[in-house]
Task: inverse folding
């Protein structure tokens, strides 16, 4: 289990809801979301080997998954989750979100960009 409080140490100003509090995390989120999609498109044009293209795309999508799960999901929307195996060998999924009063500290623009990018890239990949 986690040994630290979720959201502790995040320095955000409630008065500036419309501003970007963490533009680096927003950029990181968008870069990794875009990288997997562009790699998919470009590999089919440049590399003739399906296996090589597949491996490269899977690596980029794995990076994207890790960034969304461990970094941007926690920082931009206040969500985190992990799998915990107890002493009996049972796998348990643990989901956490920030407390309602802490959610007010998150920028609404950053939350919207996170969710729109998360959904839009899935829809776009389904249509290609």
Result:
């Amino acid at each position: 289990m986690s040994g630290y409080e979720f959201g502790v140490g995040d320095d955000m100003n409630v008065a500036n809801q419309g501003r970007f509090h963490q533009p680096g995390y927003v950029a990181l989120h968008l870069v990794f979301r875009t990288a997997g999609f562009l790699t998919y498109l470009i590999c089919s044009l440049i590399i003739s080997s399906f296996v090589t293209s597949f491996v490269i795309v899977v690596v980029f999508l794995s990076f994207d998954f890790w960034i969304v799960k461990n970094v941007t999901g926690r920082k931009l929307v206040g969500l985190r989750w992990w799998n915990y195996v107890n002493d009996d060998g049972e796998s348990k999924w643990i989901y956490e979100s920030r407390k309602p009063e802490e959610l007010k500290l998150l920028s609404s623009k950053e939350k919207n960009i996170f969710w729109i990018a998360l959904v839009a890239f899935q829809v776009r990949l389904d249509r290609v």
Notes: The longest strand covers residues 79-85.
